[in-house]
Each structure stands twice: as C-alpha cells, then as structure tokens.
Write the structure tokens for this entry.
Amino acid sequence: MIQQRDLKILSALRTNARVKLSDISKATRVPISTIWDRLREYEGKVIRGHITLLDFSRLGFATRAQVLIKTDMRCRMLDESLEPIAGIYAAGELCGMAGGHINGKAGLEGTMLGPSIFSGRVAGAWAAQEAGFGAGFQGTANRKKRPVKA
C-alpha cells in the first residue's frame, strides 16, 4: 500500500513534473533525500513517463471541432441515408462502442477503455475482411438472453 507521504510527492509531480525537489520538500515536509529515493524507486513502475502539455491556441491552432458520425455493428461509417461508406471504419469513443453498447444504456464517463478496445478489434477485423484477409469479426455474445417482461 502506498504511504500518505508518497501520495503527496506524486501529487506535487502531477501538478508540475518539473518542480524542484526542494519545493516538493517544503510543500510536503519530506526530506529531499527521501523524495529522491522514492522517485528513483517509482521511476518506470508507478511513474510511467513524463509528458509535455501544449497550449495549441498559442501555436496558432485556435479551432476545435466536434464530429458526430453514425456507425453500424461492423464499425463502418454510415452516410446520410445510413448506408455504409466503403473502406471507412471508426473505432474508440468516436464510433459509439461498435453499436453494441457494452456498458449498457447508462455508460459513465471514464468507462470507455473496454468499448474502445472492442470496437478497434471489430473495425480491424471487418476492414481486414474487406481487404481480402480473414472472415471478419466472429465474436458472439456470452450472456444468456433474459426473458422479456410483459
């Protein structure tokens, strides 16, 4: 179990990964040598990497777009008349969980990893089949049918 002191150190790093160890020490009241030892231990385990977050508006990219698409159960993108567009597949949150609604009707924010992986598998299998490789996605439901309430 991770100690409270380590959570404070990691929290400071999440706020600013370039913060000085002396500043972390002052904020957490943990000695610099302890912080150094803990970070070396966590590097590559709990700390998987360091990233740079860019402010795209300052780079001249001031436009944002939301894209809405419709897909079928094979993750094919559909046109205005709901016909599949040849060769265009979608996966991840964009495609609406391959039409299968894995998380049910009340899927919550932060629960999209499973559906995203699944839709990628479905889209990839059907795209490969369209290109002449394989038989498409061959998955079947693994749950029992529930009786319909009258």
Q: What stands out?
A: The longest helix spans residues 113-130.
